[in-house]
Every structure is written in structure tokens, then in C-alpha cells.
Design goal:
By secondary structure, the chain is of the alpha/beta class. The relative contact order is 0.11. Helices cover about 45% and strands about 15% of the residues. Strands 1, 2, 3, 4, 5 and 6 form a six-stranded parallel β-sheet that branches. The protein is globular, with a radius of gyration of 48 Å.
Length: about 240
């Protein structure tokens, strides 16, 4: 009887131990696999967002700029006003031609400047003409080959061009260019200077020139406008 009771008690003790072990194992499982505290939804790119990103990508922006940017216009002048002026009359006409034609300008200045004294200048200029002197020009014309039309201006000195104009025609090749002369004078006009230019520049096209008296040179706007319009050279 005692053996039977002991067996029953041992069986109860083993059942209680097994129940305790099962409870411990479940507790371990529950604490080692915690449930997430926050749920993160996956990001889903919508069609509209994808299109927005595509339209603002660097490559597309560059393509759009290339397609819509206008080409820069070539604004370089094709005409050049080259002139010599001592009293200012020829310069007044030259600047009016520049204003109405859009040409660039280059003033011929002797490397050794002329005197401001009129009587002394007469002696110097006549001496240069008698000896065929070619006064050196101060400075030079950049990109001269790029100009198609050369407006050439000077005062009439004793029926001829000042000798610095000869220096210019010697120093620069005007072959293939259009020469458009203009002169200021006390009434002598061009004299024989146009034929001289044609003989010195046989490969250039010399157009009809503009001759103005001293009083006209002070306000040459209308005369220059009519002249350029007749030549088809107005801007």
C-alpha cells in the first residue's frame, strides 16, 4: 500500500515539474520575438510622381534648354569708317556715317602728331606732298580682313589727299573690298582723288563718293542719309 501511495505521489510530482517547464519555454518564446512597435508601409511611387521626376531630371532640363535657347546673333559690323581729320570737319561726317550705317570707325592719326598751328601745318603738309612722304600711322586696325565696306574720308588739301591717306592705302590690302570715299573741302570737292584711289586699289570696287563743304560738314545728317540710301548702305 505504501509503495502504491509513493508511486502516486511521484507521478504527481513529475506532472507538476513538466507543467512548470512548459510554462518557462513559452515565456522565453514570447520575450525573444517582440512584436514591432511601428508598422512602416512600403513607399509606392505613383505614376504622377514618376512623371514629375522624369520631367525635372538634369538630362531633360539640359535638352529643354538646348531646344528653347535662341542662337546668338552675329552683330559684328561689316563696315569700317577710316578717316583723317585735322580741323574736325571730316570727323563730323565720319561720325554721322557711323551713326547711320552701324559701321566701326578708325581715325588715322600720325605717329608724329601734326602741329595745331594752321600756318605751320600748311608748310608741313605741302612739304610732305612734294616729297611723297608716307607719314607713319599711330596704331593699327584689328581684324581688318573682316570688313567688307571701307568708308574712306579726308579733307582736300591742295587738290589731293593728305599723305597719311596714301600711307593707309599702302599699308592695308583692300582687294575685294568696297571703298566708299567722302571728302570735305572749301569747294574743290574730290579733285582727282577718286581716280587716284582706283589706281592704287585696282582690285577694290570704288563707289560714288560724298563731297561736302565746310559749312555742310557741321550738320551732315540729311546729306549722309540721302547718300547712303542711294548706295543701299543705310542701316
Amino acid at each position: 500500500m505504501k509503495k502504491k501511495l509513493f508511486a502516486v505521489m511521484m507521478a504527481c510530482m513529475m506532472a507538476s515539474a513538466l507543467a512548470a517547464c512548459g510554462s518557462t519555454e513559452n515565456d522565453v518564446e514570447e520575450h525573444t520575438v517582440p512584436e514591432p512597435s511601428t508598422t512602416v508601409e512600403p513607399v509606392v511611387e505613383t505614376e504622377s510622381e514618376a512623371e514629375t521626376e522624369k520631367s525635372t531630371s538634369p538630362a531633360d532640363t539640359a535638352d529643354e534648354a538646348t531646344e528653347t535657347e535662341p542662337e546668338p546673333e552675329d552683330t559684328a559690323a561689316t563696315g569700317l569708317v577710316v578717316y583723317f581729320s585735322w580741323s574736325g570737319n571730316t570727323e563730323s561726317v565720319a561720325l554721322e556715317i557711323q551713326n547711320q550705317s552701324g559701321a566701326d570707325t578708325f581715325r588715322l592719326v600720325p605717329a608724329e602728331p601734326y602741329t595745331d598751328d594752321y600756318d605751320a601745318l600748311l608748310d608741313i603738309a605741302q612739304e610732305e606732298q612734294r616729297n611723297g612722304v608716307r607719314p607713319a600711322i599711330s596704331g593699327s586696325i584689328e581684324n581688318f580682313d573682316s570688313y567688307e565696306v571701307v568708308y574712306l574720308g579726308f579733307p582736300n588739301w591742295w587738290g589731293d589727299m593728305p599723305m597719311i591717306i596714301y600711307s593707309f592705302l599702302d599699308d592695308y590690302d583692300l582687294s575685294g573690298k568696297t571703298i566708299v570715299p567722302f571728302v570735305t573741302s572749301g569747294g574743290s570737292g574730290f579733285s582727282n582723288t577718286i581716280s587716284t584711289i582706283e589706281s592704287m586699289e585696282p582690285d577694290a570696287d570704288v563707289l560714288g563718293g560724298l563731297s561736302l563743304g565746310s559749312s555742310q560738314a557741321a550738320n551732315p545728317g540729311d546729306a549722309v542719309a540721302d547718300w547712303l540710301s542711294g548706295l543701299g548702305l543705310a542701316e
